[in-house]
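User: Some background: our group keeps a shared notebook of sequences we're curious about, and every so often someone picks one and asks for a predicted structure to add to the entry. Today it's my turn. The entry only has the sequence so far, pasted here. Could you supply the structure so I can complete it?
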Amino acid sequence: MQVSSVNNVKIYNLSHGKSLPEWLSDRKKRVLQQNDVDIQKRIELIQDFEMPTVCTSIRVSRDGQFILAAGTYKPRVRCYDTYQLSLKFERCLESDGELVTFDILSEDYSKLVFLHIDRYVEFHSQHGHYYKTRIPKFGRDFSYHYPSCDLYFVGASSEVFRLNLEQGRFLNSLQTDAAEINVCDINPVHQLFAAGTLEGRVDCWDPRVRSRVAVLDCALSSITDGTEVEGLPSVSALKFNGSLGMAVGTSTGQVLVYDLRSSRPLLVKDHYYGLPIKSLHFHDQLDLVLSADSKIIKMWNKDNGKVFSSIEPQANINDVCLYPGSGMLFTANEDPKMNTFYIPALGPAPRWCSFLDNLTEELEENPESTIYDDYKFVTRKDLENLGLTHLIGSPLLRAYMHGFFMDIRLYHKVKTMANPFAYEEYRKDRIRQKIEESRTQRVQLKKLPKVNKELAMKLMEESELPTRKKKKKDNLLSDDRFKVMFENPDYQVDERSEEFRLLNPIVSKVGEKRRQKLSHHSGLQQDEEEEEVEGRGSSEEEESSDDDDKSWVEEVREQRRLIRAEENRQQEPQRHSQPRFYQIKAGEEFRSFGDVARKQKMQKTSLEERLQREESSGRLNLNDTAVGSKQLTFTLKKVSMNYPELSCFVIFTGCLLVTAAGQMIMSMQL
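Assistant: Of course. Here's the predicted structure to add to the notebook entry:
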């Protein structure tokens, strides 16, 4: 969904946004819709409203229920049901040639006619393909005459071929003076047939008498003051309006509005793009003309030519279809997607999508700047350079903000005459751009605060890194609430404290790099004469996440070991200077300090040394049997327990037997 405003007219592009691939699962589509803002704003008015490659023509049935679009590749037609907002059917055509144009002969989709580039004419009924025939010359356009059931074909010939659908045969053709005929149309009121020729003329024929009644020379009338054309303008579009109105589009980008009672045009409107006019439509409610070339769709008043609004799609335009009685129009583009535009100023939304009227208030976001068509904005300095300051206050200049609007044709004429050194200005602009590009490649110096410089540098690096999150973090350096932290020395971070070292295990490595960068930064500030300094590549400073995790664990262990070592070093002088005190537990008999040292030494000895001492003292006896088993006999020491209520001696004797199979058997006697 895209909302733009041109001349204060809101235009809603309902087809704007990303399209989700069909092969995605429903779960992935929901995830994309939650994360992508463009997909969230996308409105799929009609499901699968697109072509595989290119859409060439688009039509709306007279009952307003069906929208038919033709395109490639392979040549096909798609029918969309507006009541269901989805695709009704799709047919591939019999002929392999590209489709030139098609038309709907019935109220719905039951009767269709297709004109191919290889001279084939294909007829379709409700069930599908019905009949195929061929015309003598390559066709470019055709029109259907309802009273006589005749199809008029025009193309690369001077003749107009007539095919009667009631009799099923070709009738005598109409002979013209033109070398080729590009377009044709039939007036819906009095059935006058008009054909636009390659020479820029419009021949009008009366089907009742099969004779030419009038000729309009549009090529000569399209050239007016200030109009620049290349080559002879030929007729590229033709459209009747009522019984007396007619609009003619030329291949050089002009639109001529005629009254059939006069041979001179009432109005000549130039698109200023030099591209052929491809489509013409009339909007009777607002007296507007909708003219389109391959680049832009312009809406302007048919009486005075005042611009109402304009639409410029991203892809080139092939055809435009205005939904009758509404403000919605469809475009066939050089792109798979067919655009749908809704302009509330032209009329209400169609009945099948009336909910769009309720959404217009919510969709007025990000409006584009106002575009003044056919005018150039100039400042007072520009007027001085062009020598047009004497026009200030005249109707030729319209004051606006800090400058003026002037006619684009007048601006081009005066600039060509008053500025013969345009190449020098272009050269200066290019040199200025090169200088600006070289300045951006230099090292940008940043001022650091006096307190917590390393923390400030860390915040700067984090702010420069791209983030995927939607919400941006607040910059503490620009926040007044934390300004004191970078000014008052009392807020200096103590990196030697135990809490800082444990909470920031890898701060030593990052801090070392930051200190090097800080010293490098201060050196750059002191040396102001040096112009460019080469910095280290960012790839050398990056580390993988796995290496960071390993270094984090190792650094935590190292920091804990260093903290314990510092604590032991601080406690050692206190131990040597102060006497050592021992507490005797209840039931123990104090003998000497040597017993305590002996016990501590005994606890540090290995099991082998203990067994040897016990065997030498006679308390332990180890014997080997014949089958490989071992027998261990031991006697525990006498332990005296002094209690006021009980006094006795307890002697434990036991035997531990280990068999050859590895089993252990232990017996104990009291």
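Suggested note for the entry: The first helix runs from residue 26 to 35. The longest strand covers residues 54-60.
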